[in-house]
Design the sequence.
């Protein structure tokens, strides 16, 4: 059974930082492209950052150099370091694992709230 468990969300002031973590189980981590998505009420889930099948990191335009995705295969984990957070970054953030033959898996999400 595939499980993606996110952690690290919370309340942060504008300009602050958070580091999200995702622990994967039930998959062979090296076969999947890992990424982060986010969703706000009434809107579709959108890509924040992800690795391509070639292992390159891709970022949404709105990231503007503020976020960094990383992974630690030995820990079956992927991370999203977020700096200079803005109120518009408030969302539920989801870990994603993708492989063409399987499609997408998502975790349960972790809430990030940016507010003073």
Sequence:
């Amino acid at each position: 059974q595939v499980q993606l468990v996110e952690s690290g969300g919370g309340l942060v002031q504008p300009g602050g930082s958070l580091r999200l973590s995702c622990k994967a189980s039930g998959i062979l981590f090296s076969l999947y492209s890992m990424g982060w998505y986010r969703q706000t009420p009434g809107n579709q889930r959108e890509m924040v950052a992800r690795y391509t099948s070639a292992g390159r990191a891709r970022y949404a335009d709105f990231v503007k150099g503020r976020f960094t995705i990383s992974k630690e295969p030995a820990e079956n984990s992927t991370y999203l370091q977020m700096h200079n957070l803005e109120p518009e970054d408030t969302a539920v953030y989801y870990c994603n694992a993708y492989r063409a033959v399987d499609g997408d898996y998502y975790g349960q999400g972790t809430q990030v709230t940016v507010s003073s």
User: Anything to note?
Assistant: The first strand starts at residue 3 and ends at 7. The mean pLDDT is 96. The chain has no helices and eleven strands.
